[in-house]
Design goal:
The chain is about 45% helix and about 20% strand. With about 375 residues, it is of the alpha/beta class. It has two domains: about 140 residues, no CATH class; about 200 residues, Rossmann fold, CATH 3.40.50.410. Strand 4 and strand 5 form a beta hairpin. The relative contact order is 0.15.
């Protein structure tokens, strides 16, 4: 029966080693080529899933050797059809193993080199005026605070704009420009994620001061300018008609987003870690001051939208911003990394199909 072993087991061992050496050489050649172009595995930790492969090889050959031992002890069982069984067994293992390797490489998200693409960059400047007074902690929007909803809303807007510069002005009774208009969207989002109502100690809602700061933060360039004001309008301070007139005169679009519900909710008191009480011992309830926000918007010639859901529709606002930027665009050539994910996915799919159709060899043999 040694002849059967030599003909079956060791034949496949040699074939297996030859295939694996060829595969390793091919992968190393491809990797060295792409390395010159700066290949990067963005999810490199996934590649550790390839480490068990040697153990899987050993288990596969142990199983095959045991099957051949059965035929060694029972020579009458061995036939050409049984040898075909070993062929199918090994081919299925090879194809399934290569499918697994291709999936792991695809999940590691390999990228390399750069390619040039055309993008449309629209000119424009947008100042975000975000109210961070204590009333923005009220959880009257599906049990989520007004501030958290505002930050998610602004992140969605930032993700959708293309080329416009964005700045941030935070305000309560006082205000300050945290970021002047910039195209560094990631920095804007990072700073927004850290915003808390404790940034400013003096409470109140001085909208006019925030609008003045935002107007001063704009550049002198003749490009469309917009202010996104997010406030509940509660406890607002004195109004300055001069700011409203300046916004209207300079053609700046004021998009007021009145956030909060008409029913309102209790204001938290972080000092006592409880709800805020008035002098008579009653809960302090904060509601959206729709009258103030509407009056402010009308005087500035802007537009008002109420935000009373966790995931508001951004389409009207984005459409308005893009329409204002129409005619102020340019084609830019930017370089982005080229993804290689498609290649291992296609190769893996091909090997999986071969794995599925390998048993058909028995039908062809017959």
């Amino acid at each position: 029966m040694n002849r059967i072993k030599s003909h079956t087991f060791y034949k496949w061992l040699k074939l297996f080693l030859a295939i694996e050496l060829f595969t390793v050489a091919l992968i190393l050649t491809v990797y060295l080529y792409f390395e010159k172009n700066g290949i990067i595995f963005q999810n490199a930790d996934v590649l550790y899933a390839l480490l068990p492969l040697p153990v899987i090889y050993v288990l596969c050959f142990i199983r095959q050797k045991r099957k051949i031992d059965v035929f060694e002890n029972n020579p009458a069982l061995f036939s050409s059809s049984k040898e075909l069984y070993f062929t199918i067994f090994n081919l299925k293992f090879i194809f399934l193993k290569n499918t697994f390797m291709a999936v792991i490489i695809a999940l590691s998200n390999p990228v390399f080199g750069t390619r040039k693409v055309d993008v449309v960059s629209k000119d424009g400047e947008i100042m975000i005026c975000l109210d961070i007074s204590n009333s923005m902690n009220v959880k009257d929007i599906d049990n989520e605070s007004r501030l958290e909803v505002s930050k998610r809303l602004l992140n969605g807007i930032i993700n959708k704009v293309s080329g416009q510069k964005i700045g941030i002005c935070l305000f309560a009774a006082d205000g300050f420009v945290q970021i002047p208009p910039s195209q560094d969207y990631q920095s804007v989002k990072n700073l927004l994620s850290d915003v808390q109502t404790t940034f400013l100690s003096r409470q109140g809602t001085n909208v006019c001061n925030a609008l003045e700061l935002s107007m001063n933060a704009f550049t002198d360039s003749k490009i469309p300018k917009s202010i996104l004001l997010i406030t509940d309008g509660e406890n607002h301070m004195s109004e300055d008609k001069n700011v409203y007139n300046r916004i209207r005169k300079d053609g700046v679009l004021l998009y007021t987003m009145g956030i909060g519900s008409m029913e309102g909710g209790p204001v938290p008191d972080f000092a006592t870690k409880s709800l805020k009480m008035d002098n008579e011992g009653n809960l302090v309830i904060s509601k959206l001051n729709i009258e103030f926000t509407q009056s402010l918007t009308n005087q500035c010639g802007g537009k008002l939208v109420r935000i009373d859901s966790r995931y508001p529709d951004l389409s009207p606002l984005l459409t308005e911003i893009n329409l204002r930027s129409k005619g102020y665009y340019r084609n830019l050539k930017i370089e982005v990394r080229r993804s290689l994910v498609d290649y291992p996915v296609r190769i893996g799919f091909l090997f999986f199909l071969l794995f599925l159709f390998t048993p058909l060899l028995q039908l062809l043999k017959k």
